[in-house]
Amino acid sequence: MMSRTMAEAQLPHRVDGPKLVENNQQFSAQIDSSVLSRLNDAVDRCLAPVSCVLSFDRDEERHRVLKGSCSTRVSMVCQRCLEPVEVRVESQFSLGLVFNDEQAKQLPRRLEPVEVDENGILDLWSVIEDEVLLALPMFPTHEASECQMRQPEPENKPGNEKRPNPFDVLAQLKQK
Ligand SMILES: [Zn+2]
């Protein structure tokens, strides 16, 4: 196992939200993406940890705010050629920490509400996972040039009927 530098520290899982706000806590850390089961279900494969830069603070209106960004790389299925495509996922967010729906309703629109439990505990991994899921492309595809270079599988898999491929036609035209 490779040694981890400070910059690669694991982001804490469950944290005391209000306490981190009072401490103006900041994190530059990552989450091992293998622990994020919903993300693993949503993509073909995770290719990197989720890197996070987070800051807990009060804003000018005294709202408890978790501000930050996260990024990772995943492999998804290209919706044009059905081959894997590497997707870089990035998200920036401003979240308002609340204890209940009533507080959530009082947040200004610039803050997305995130609920802590009655003890102020926040599942930080789940919050970040939500942000990554929201940032996934609905229709992942290769760049047009890369996608056209893909050749169809030569072998005929059972159940896979051979259909004319528009890129084959294009390739034949180019050869002439
Ligand atoms: Zn493609």
Automatic annotation (TrEMBL):
GO terms for cellular component: cytosol. Belongs to the DUF177 domain family. Keywords: Ribosome biogenesis. Plays a role in synthesis, processing and/or stability of 23S rRNA. This is Large ribosomal RNA subunit accumulation protein YceD. The lineage of its organism: Bacteria, Pseudomonadati, Pseudomonadota, Gammaproteobacteria, Oceanospirillales. Residues 144-176 are annotated as: Disordered. It comes from Parathalassolituus penaei. The keyword Transmembrane does not apply. Residues 152-165 have a biased composition (Basic and acidic residues). It comes from the Bacteria. Pfam families: YceD. GO terms for biological process: ribosome biogenesis.
